Amino acid sequence: MIELGNKYRGWLISLGAICVLFLMWYFRGLVSYIAVSVIISLIGRPLVRGLCRLRVKNFSLGQGGSAFITLLSFWVVVVGAVRFFIPLLISEFEELSSVNPDSVFAIVDEPLVRFMSFIGHEPVDSGKQLFMEVFQNQFKDGLGIEHVSNLLGTVAGAFGSLLLGAFSVSFISFFFLKEETLFKDVILILTPTGWEERVARMMHSIHLLLRRYFLGLIAEVVLVGLFVTIGLTITGLGFSHAVVIGIFCGLFNVIPYLGPWMGAAVGLLIGLTVNIHADFSSHTLPLLGLMVLVFASVQIIDNILFQPLIYSSSVKAHPLEIFLVIMAAGGFAGIVGMILAIPVYTILRVAAKEFFNEMKLVKKLTKSL
């Protein structure tokens, strides 16, 4: 009778887990707000604790005041970064839009002709003309009234969703910051009887590991962007261009392994375009070479110093293990999968250690936790 009850209990738990996963998918918008709020609370928790310890005579901020100041500080940093970045980006786009595409082709034509001749093929002149015709047609089609209307509607909808998301995340984050165990208590309420202790240990480990990871990731983004900006400024690229490229490289670096290549490609494109009127052989080509040297140097520093500190030390996993997980996640869910791979894999490893530690593979993968 007891064995039969245990059997049905296992089926009920499995059914409940399926129902929870379905509800998470159905309310994925709300789940994404909660996930972002949890990340903000993980990052902001040290500041909340520090503010709670501050006392001026008999006055203290308390949990509520500390949570509010922490959340306000977060939005000040975000809004300040956006206000700093947007004017630079607009200026960059204005300068790039003033470039004549024929000038770009004029620069590219000569090296392309040499390369085609070197490999024994004659360059095709109609390729450039065909590309320009397609580009002009697409550009004209994109300026149609119906496309402009659709674009305005999309922008208005995106702005409304952004405001709703910002308010929702702020509201949820405030209570997660104010009540440190709130999220944990909600999860424990949904936990089957008898599993509370394991789930509590699991959430404690996940909290520590993910907090180290996200704080380290923010530091990596800032340092990569700063090093790229300084390096490109030293090479002779304009400061505003160097800052924009540095920001792009820092943000793209969130995407493991693939991100640095994307940032370097964007940087080289900007470097080529803003120096379009300079002599290619004596100025532009050496500048691009120095930019490649800067990107490679920063990437070496990132691989040797930053990434081992973040991916290996913070989540306590082998670099090869992390690489395979990221590649698998990228094949399954693209860029988003690569970004989420490490946090999700960390959660799965901690859960496996608590509930499946008798398996050899799990013991091997979680021995460092």
Automatic annotation (TrEMBL):
Signal peptide (residue range): none
Alphabetic keyword roster: Cell membrane, Membrane, Transmembrane, Transmembrane helix, Transport
GO cellular component terms, A-Z: plasma membrane
InterPro entries for this protein: AI-2E-like (IPR002549)
Pfam families: AI-2E_transport (PF01594)
UniProt entry tagged with the keyword Transport: yes
Annotated compartments: Cell membrane
Main location: membrane
Chain segments annotated as transmembrane: 9-27, 33-52, 64-86, 151-177, 213-237, 243-272, 284-310, 322-348
Topology within the bilayer: Multi-pass membrane protein
Keyword Transferase listed: no
Coiled coil region boundaries: none
Biological process according to GO: transmembrane transport
Homology family: Belongs to the autoinducer-2 exporter (AI-2E) (TC 2.A.86) family.
Record-given protein name: Putative PurR-regulated permease PerM
